[in-house]
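Ticket #4471: structure export looks truncated?
Reporter: QA, pipeline team
Priority: medium

Steps to reproduce: submit the single chain below to the structure queue and open the exported record.
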Amino acid sequence: METTAKRATDAESCGGQSWIGRELAALKLPDARLEKRPRSLVEQLAQGIGRSIPLACQDGSAAKAACLFFSNGRVSEEQILAGHFLAARERIARKSCF
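Actual output as written to the record:
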């Protein structure tokens, strides 16, 4: 039986790019600072799957930064999800790297 860690490792290395990189590839935000934030957020949330943002972020300042990012008027839901939708279409087309 395959372990969760083994599946995560396989998903990480699929296609030579991290799964986070693939999910965020199409993300385009208004400035460089905003472009960096989603990667750290996804890394934190991936380590705390099923946890609330404050628990996944593990400290008050990281949780506040996450909430400020999500409430930023220059960042839309469509922008945040664009990379995920593109990566999902590519996975379906290849029928691999789930």
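Status: closed, not a bug. The export was complete when the record was re-opened. Leaving a note from the reviewer for reference: Residues 50 and 56 are 8 Å apart (CA to CA).
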